[in-house]
Amino acid sequence: MSDAPADPAPEPRDASEVGPEASRAAWAEAARPVLLEAAGRYRATVTYKQLSTAVQAATGITTARPVAQWIGGVLDVVTQESHARDEPLLSSLCVSIQGSVGEGYAESVERARGVRPEDPDGHAAEERLACYRHWEAVGLPRDGGTPLRTAHFKPARKAPAAKPAAAKRAPARVPGSSAPPRKVAPSKTAAPAPEEKPIRLCPNCFTAVPATGICDYCD
């Protein structure tokens, strides 16, 4: 058993004092070992919340901002660094609680490699497998494993607009008939459908955000 003293905890600082760029760089550096640990276990992933908690604890730089507002920038730095190192993208290992990487991942891949993946979650599944193989993950099958799509939800969609009710037509009068046409009760005009409010989506996992503005899955 080692008697070496543990490294002292970093002095707590608020990100507003450190600055956005310096905070992002420090968090990205702290994110690498967390993601490498996941890369070393076949089919392991890290959630946005887990990563955000880990990097703040490791750096001492904290923020009260919702995770969805800043974790994407950290993962973008991780993506660019992975590309510069000619490694599989470690950012693919970080997902929402629903298993999705979201459009932010696609934007980072496009900045790093020049091509935007049409299916971000499918692309991330391939990159995760490449990570497990590159870092020889524990539990990796002898055949090299297979990509696993972890996303298991569909983005929220607006309900279709209600169709207006068709107006009733008066019966035609038979030629030569002396009987007056029957009176038809005026049709009731359908009430206009209430105007739909746009659904606010989380920029990371693209699920509907409640009225609080804070994602239930990412924050």
Q: Mind explaining what this structure looks like?
A:
This protein is mainly alpha-helical and 219 residues long. It has a domain at 13-134. It has helices at residues 15-18, 20-39, 48-59, 71-84, 102-113, 120-134, and strands at residues 13-14, 46-47, 61-62, 94-95. The strands form 2 sheets. Strands 1-3 form a two-stranded parallel ribbon. The chain has a two-stranded parallel sheet with strand order 2-4. Helix 2 (20-39) packs across helix 3 (48-59), helix 2 (20-39) crosses helix 4 and helix 4 runs parallel beside helix 5 (102-113). The two termini are 38 Å apart. Residues 1-24, 154-195 are annotated as: Disordered. Residues 158-173 have a biased composition (Low complexity).
What is the share of helical residues? 25-40%
Given the C-alpha coordinates, what overall shape results?
globular
Order of strands across the main sheet = 1-3
User: How many whole angstroms does the radius of gyration measure?
Assistant: 28 Å
What is the oligomeric state here?
single chain
Strand content: under 5%
Biased composition (Low complexity): 158-173
Region (Disordered): 1-24, 154-195
